[in-house]
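Before relying on records like the one below, remember that each one covers exactly one chain. Contacts with other chains, cofactors or solvent are not represented anywhere in the record.
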Amino acid sequence: MELKTYITPLIKWWWLLLTASLVAFVSSFLATREQPPVFQAHTTLIIGRSVFEPNPTTNDMWLGQQLAGFYADYAQREPIRIATMTALGLTWLPDYLVRPLPNSQLLEILVTDVNPQRAQVVANELANQLIKQSPTSPQPQDQERQQFINNQLDTLQKDIKKTEEEIATKQAELPDLNSARQIADTQQEITALQTKLTTLQTNYATLLSNTGKGAINILTIIEQAVLPTVPIGPNKSMIILLSGAIGLMLAAGAAYLLEYLDDTLKSPEEITRLVNLSVIGQISEMSEEKNGGVYVEKQPRSAIAESFRSLRANLEFASVDKPVKTILVTSAGTVEGKTSVACNLAVIMAQGGKKVVLLDADLRKPSVHRYLGLSNKIGLSDVFKGDVNLQGVMNSWKEDQIRIISSGNTPPNPAELIGSKKMELILDELKQMADIIIIDGPPLLVSEAAVMATKVDGVLLVIRHGYTRKKDAVSMLERLKMAGARILGVTLNRVPKNRTYYYGHYYYLETGFGANGNKNKKPLTISESAKVKISKKDQVK
């Protein structure tokens, strides 16, 4: 699939992409403009004291990590929240996060708030409340007991120091002793002192374990929260850019969705791929819709007139092997613009020097007379009734360059009239009068259209850009194939002027002439165009 297939929907819906992006930009700007800056304060605690010991055990390290996870969860509970609010005199707490740092005994408290001072004090107070809730935190009822233990520890520490000094003194006396009995007695005293020292050290360790000095389940603040000065957010520029990008992506998705849901035909490639027919003409939108039939006559030097000349040339190429004198112009529905194409094509054929008959064979909803400003009191239906012959219903237009036969009054049985032998006789008679007969036929949604297609030399199908549905185009083709009609090609009508596949040569055609031709010259009429061509032939001769 070509890259153009993906880019075309974005170009077509550029206004949707632009609008969505602008709305997202403006909305995000207005939403973030009033948002205050956000600050973050953090406090760090450590579990236990094993990391400060010269020989910490693996079990102590592992247990400290497990306790860090417990305290991180416990800090989010109501007891800590309520205690912190009570201590600070607050009725609510800002958002905070307590997390254990991976593979460590560290616990981090992060407080986010628009007030940096409040973030700081809340972070520190949460840490204090965790310490107070820990088992090693001194409670009021345990103060006397802890004081006694501390006194005993001081006494034991003195006794241990004194005993160590006595052992050192006795050991220093041993070299100076001469009597065996004195040496034996001294060694016994040293042994007794060492036993006493071991007992004192054991008692000291036992008492020490009842305090927080040697506990593993203890919390200590190692980093107090400081006053944050640099906000962590919001990043307003990034939010606005991301909002615009999201709006653009959503709009692009909507554009692709709309294109996917749109089953109308919009390009020659789609038509060729769907119905396997060549697009031999591409006609742009005409500004004068009410007088669309005479557009090329009023603006012979416009790009639209050039498009019809290209269509005329392609039809002539299509009739090289098998002459085409009767061309039926039809479409799938009633608003594809077949009448406009038929009228303009007839004018272009006449400007090419051919005698043209424009026949309105749409007996249900005729339109040719309205496009050309003619009367429809008598016409083709009156020829069928035998009230008048073909010469009697022909209208000369623009100095006999084109002769027009309108439909006449609407008959009750148009399908029977079109399918009758009389219709073939009318066409045969018209072939004797003109070089080419352009027939504005009924749309293929009625039965007589397919019947009419079998009576002409070729059929020109009109598909309206962005309107004719794919299923209708396929159904139209199937009806013509079943009828055995000869299809000359497809004309893509009412192509927007911004379509590159139509207006690739538009600038070249318009430069120096404008949409209406030369600025200094009036547009040529059909008769004047014919005179110019005759004079050029005379010059060649």
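The CA atoms of residues 222 and 473 lie 80 Å apart.
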